[in-house]
Amino acid sequence: MEIPGSGDLASRPGILLNAHVDTIGRSTPEFLAFDARTGDLYHLHETESGKSSSFGGDDRSAVAVIVETVRLLQANYWSRGVPHRRILLVFTADEERGCVGAKYLSQHEPDLFANLEISLSIDGPLDFESDYPRDSFVVVVSERNATIAPYKHVIELMQEFCGLTGSRFGKTQIGLGMGDFAHFPASSRAGLHLRSVVRGFHRRERVKVQDLISQIDLLCYLLLCWDNSQPTNLPPRLLP
Fold first, then answer.
1. Domain assignments of the chain as residue spans, ordered by start
2. Fewest Cβ atoms closer than 10 Å to its Cβ: which of 145, 146, 210, 220?
């Protein structure tokens, strides 16, 4: 899905947002439940050995974040004249079977990735080899890419956002070369991605509702402030 750019940014290179809609074959979303004590969405079978404990938070939590971000921005900013670049939403399939969807798009739909400023994927468990919950967000990037555009700009905006919200983020290289973004063409500029807010690696999945909201706020902030179309000293809470 493409959302055309607007205002002075209509002709600028676009921003691609990506997550994958498929889940592992043993996911059982019908056993999704809510833990009021912790604020987590969780799987009812998480303590039962021999049973699947994945409800599909990988990567549908990221799909939810992207869709809600776009809905909020359209309702509260873009429809009111705040300019933005072209936004491309790419929800891939069959990531869990070897990134089949991403490979297909790269091979058969190369024009999809043309004229992009950056591709920003959201995937992978937030707590995998990270300092969660001390780190609210995890960015996966190489040392080199962390110092060059456009990836350096993402990190700078994340630093600003975390300063406003009193949160922090961590950087890691664990996850590079894995996931759909690793199979996008070089023209996509997919050298950095964010971890999804799901916890647990295909088992005992949990997703904290507040983490979902925080990542929506972060993504809103990144898109609004990418071209300085919103002053960075505005309150971090982006909901109306």
1. 13-225
2. 210
What are the pLDDT digits (tens) for 92-136? 999 999 999 999 999 999 999 999 999 999 999 999 999 999 999
Cα distance between residue 89 and residue 45, in whole Å:
33
CA 22 from chain centre, in angstroms, equals 15
Going by C-beta distance under 8 Å and a sequence separation of 6 or more, which residues neighbour residue 126?
Answer: 132, 137, 138, 195, 196, 197, 198, 199, 211
The predicted-structure confidence for 16-47, as pLDDT tens digits, reads as follows: 999 999 999 999 999 999 999 999 999 999 99
Query: Which DSSP symbol is given to 56?
Result: S
The residue written with tokens 């599909």 in the block is 56
Question: Are 19 and 120 in contact, with CB atoms under 8 Å apart?
Answer: no
Q: Name residue 209's amino acid.
A: V
State how far the alpha carbon of 183 is from the alpha carbons of 43, 72, 90, 91, 177, in Å: 31, 30, 13, 14, 8
The answer to whether 157 and 83 have CB atoms below 8 angstroms apart is no
Q: Would you say the pTM of this structure is higher than 0.85?
A: yes
| The domain over range 13-225 is classified in CATH as 3.40.630.10 | yes
Which class for 108: exposed (0-12), middle (13-18), buried (19 or more C-beta within 10 A)? exposed
Q: Which parts of the chain are beta strand (E)? A: 2-3, 14-20, 32-35, 40-43, 87-92, 116-122, 137-141, 169-172, 192-194, 206-208
What is the amino acid identity at position 75? Answer: A
| Residue 33 neighbours by CB under 8 Å, 6+ apart | 41, 42, 43, 44
